[in-house]
Specification:
Number of helices: 1
Distance between the termini: 41 Å
Shape: rod-shaped
Structural class: mainly alpha
Helix content: over 70%
Radius of gyration: 13 Å
Order of helices and strands: H
Strand content: under 5%
Number of strands: 0
Length: 28
């Protein structure tokens, strides 16, 4: 299982970005 589907990786990255965005908004 070397090749990971780019869609899955993009989904994880976008989820982390949204989560980080929410955290920054919460702290400000």
């Amino acid at each position: 299982m070397k090749a990971h589907p780019p869609l899955s990786q993009l989904l994880v990255i976008s989820f982390l970005v949204i989560f980080a965005s929410g955290e920054l908004e919460f702290y400000q």
